[in-house]
TrEMBL record:
Gene3D superfamilies, A to Z: Citrate Synthase, domain 1, Cytochrome P450-Terp, domain 2
Name of the protein described by the UniProt record: Citrate synthase
Organism, as annotated: Pseudoduganella violacea
Record-level Gene Ontology MF annotations: acyltransferase activity, acyl groups converted into alkyl on transfer
Gene Ontology biological process: tricarboxylic acid cycle
InterPro entries, A to Z: Citrate_synth-like_lrg_a-sub, Citrate_synth-like_sm_a-sub, Citrate_synthase_sf
TM regions (residue ranges): none
Length: 270
């Protein structure tokens, strides 16, 4: 069934497996009464359950908390935080500023799309290696033909978050998963040929989440709040300053390379 017939089948009704709200009565969340059955769930646990329909272990939930905590940088110079701060500086609403900043967090090189491509590569590479392909050949061919996301980082190739996450992974016995082991093996292949391509946070947390059994699409939804906690401090601080005082740029601070100043004459036409 396609086209108008398909749409007609869905017109005037919502068929759903994820839940429904019954105002004045109750709310259903993936087959459970939200207030009665799920009231004691950790918020992140509920968030994951909503995406996947299954419950993660306590150790996995603790790891997800740590992944988000360790990348919550309240620095308005960062590309997404800057948008949240500038919105507050322009006296827009905090909600609009943070939503816009979250949208920008999907950046290709160092945001959500980088992580999405990292988990997609790791999952595909694991399958190909299991099917008999040589990892070194696979990785070097991918590096030459495309870009292996999750390796390399601007400014400084060492990622300060990795030691803290790996310390927790070892404590929680989450450090032996196949995707995580593969991620480090990929780094070992890359470094002799590309010394600047050290593993970054995208590959690490993508590997950890892949080992939790999430698909690339589920990962993309799960990582939405990754940078969120660093944004409100930027909004608060920008709002405390005079309007427009965050990153003001004087005219003489603009490097202009266009046409030189020109004289204009006007002629009155009657």
């Amino acid at each position: 069934m396609r086209g108008p017939d398909l749409l007609k089948k869905h017109a005037g009704r919502l068929k759903t497996r994820v839940g429904a709200a019954y105002p004045g009565s109750h709310a259903v969340f993936r087959g459970h009464d939200l207030h009665r059955d799920l009231k004691d769930l950790d918020w992140v646990e509920l968030y994951v359950f909503g995406i996947t329909g299954r419950r993660l272990t306590a150790a996995q939930i603790e790891m997800l908390h740590a992944i988000w905590v360790n990348t919550s940088y309240p620095d308005a110079r960062l590309w997404n935080n800057r948008v949240a701060g500038l919105a507050a500086s322009a006296r827009s609403s905090a909600n609009l500023g943070i939503v816009a900043a979250l949208a920008l967090s999907e950046a290709t090189v160092y945001g959500g799309l980088a992580g999405l491509r990292a988990i997609s590569f790791l999952q595909a590479a694991l399958q190909r290696v299991a099917a008999g392909e040589e990892l070194e050949t696979l990785v070097l061919a991918e590096a030459r033909a495309h870009r292996i996301y999750g390796y390399g980082r601007p400014i400084n190739s060492s990622d300060e978050r990795l030691p803290w996450i790996m310390e927790l992974a070892r404590k929680l016995d989450l450090d032996q998963g196949p995707h995580l082991q593969l991620a480090f093996a990929v780094e070992r292949v890359l470094l002799p040929h590309y010394p600047q391509l050290r593993m970054n946070y995208a590959a690490l947390h993508a590997a950890l989440i892949a080992d939790m059994g999430l698909s690339a699409r589920e990962y993309q939804l799960l990582r939405i709040p990754t940078f969120l906690a660093g944004m409100p401090p930027c909004v608060v601080e920008a709002a405390e300053k005079p309007p427009g005082a965050l990153f003001p740029t004087p005219c003489d601070g603009v490097a202009y390379e266009g046409l030189a100043q020109r004289s204009w004459s006007a002629q009155l036409v009657e």
